[in-house]
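To whoever picks this up:

The nightly regression suite flagged Orotidine 5'-phosphate decarboxylase as changed. Nothing in the input moved, so I suspect the structure step. Input below, exactly as stored in the fixture:
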Amino acid sequence: MTAPFGARLRQAMDDRGQLCVGIDPHASLLSAWGLGDDIAGLTTFSRTVVEALADRVAVLKPQAAFFERFGSKGVAVLEQCVADARAAGALVVMDAKRGDIGSTMAAYAEAFLDGGSPLFSDALTVSPYLGFGALKPAVDLARKNGCGLFALALTSNPEGASVQRAVGAEGRTVAQSVLAQLAAENAGVQPLGSFGAVVGATLTDVDEADLAINGPLLAPGVGAQGATMADIPRVFGRSARNVVPSVSRDVLKHGPSVQGLRDAAQRFVDEVRTAVA
Ligand SMILES: O=c1ccn([C@@H]2O[C@H](COP(=O)(O)O)[C@@H](O)[C@H]2O)c(=O)[nH]1
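Regenerated output under the current build:
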């Protein structure tokens, strides 16, 4: 039986360091790597990232959009990418940001969190903006299959605040409500719950108490969006050890050299270790 995602993530971060590398095959990166903006380029790009990093970084996070833009052939590349990355030892967080009414959410959950699915991943990013309760089918399937979820709470983009910082009837922000419901899912779990939040490393004013969800905190925004690893303790305070900083473009720009990708990832691992120590 597979250990819960939170326990597997804790172990992976202890062994390999606190880093998630995003696999985001932007057209501009494909071009910079000397590849075509086509299926052949997508295949070479994702294979190279997996070859370079899946045996050494804790988490790889394919961004589904960059594969989906090529249609079914792109999705086939994504399926292979996920399978290869998992086989090489990385935990895979599928960044697909799914969220819908409960009955449809059940189908999204099956697509990514059912062991028989070609896109089976260790965890999935989800949007709680149809109501956190609508995510229940995904919560249930994730728990059953040792998977995790990362719910969007305080995203790294400046536009997110208009929704996420809005104050609801009970006097707390939407983000606070999402974080509290994640904390409830993780209550009492050791060493770390499996139900995480997406909280940008770019943020300036976050209440440390809200982040104590006993679950992982996926922190995009390091690198191209302007945050650095030094921001991790500033933003996350006492929860910094549960943070998985996520970097896509600022690692990927060092390809197609396998060694270049490895060196870039290692620099970020070293930087976050120093910052969080
Ligand atoms: O709040 C969020 C949630 C998700 N993302 C995703 O992370 C990567 C960031 O890429 P970089 O190149 O490191 O900027 C991308 O896939 C986003 O969709 C985010 O940035 N912020």
